Fold this protein.
Amino acid sequence: MQADPKFLRVLAGEKQARPPVWFMRQAGRYLPEYRALRASAPDFIAFCLNPEMAAEATLQPMRRFPFDASIVFADILLLPKALGQKVWFEAGEGPKLGEMPELARMKDLTGQAGEALSAVGETLKLVRAGLPADKALIGFAGAPWTVATYMIEGGSSDRSKARSYAYTNPDDLAALLDVLVEGTVDYLAMQAAAGAQALMLFESWAEALTDSLFETIVIRTHQAIIAGLRARGVQTPVIGFPRGAPALAERYAVKVPVAAVGLDTTAPLGLGQRVQALKPIQGALDPLLLRAGGPALDARVEEYLQTWGEGPYIFNLGHGILPDTPIAHVEQVLARVTGK
């Protein structure tokens, strides 16, 4: 197997003749083959924990498009499930979570998170066997604050309840985040052992946090996860993605020992250059623009290539592909980026 695909060389700080490219949610509902596969599963959690089905979903976009990396098909809410909280998905409403278990009970389960989610490891093994050697394989987890917001609120929302909880119950939140750090380390270490060549931390709800909260619930926990992985001998590079916090991206790049920083759709070009002077960057094409297509899409892709292409850069979106995105628009972008 080739040890250093283009994607991994960028994570090591190297500039490439063209940036490697992959898209968040590149496996998903915009693909007819995914919709057909998903229809054969009884529910979404069962789908995620079926290694054969999840591996097939992961590999589908790699067969269709010239992506340079593949991210394992799973969900950030598998970890609360492994820690004893009921998790399910309702059609048209999204994720739902039951009552949060006692903290002591969850803490007892943190060292077993990887074992409880071993199906994801089996998926990674199947995907690695099915990927060409020059394509990288990414594992991932939801970052502690993002996962905690779902656990506190019982599902999707505007996160106001969770942010209020951060102010009114700081010690309780810190204890919950510490439990999630431990569980995440165990989960990601299992993924690395199963063949993940890079790991991504999705801090999907870093938006609307004060700088002090960002420091304590994002920067601190991300530092702790990477320290925990390194203490276990896991040297796999980590990409951190603090979505919605562009003003704090430079601070994040300085303080968190990630290999690269993901930028969201709000990141200005100049900010990307400043962060890129510190770490490789990934992002930040707007999924709405990808869906819209046309000359505006071509122009924005060219801006990113011209502005960020002189440094270590991974071409990606600033959030996941929208389900109604035309496949032709994905092909349009990939043709400009890869020449294929």
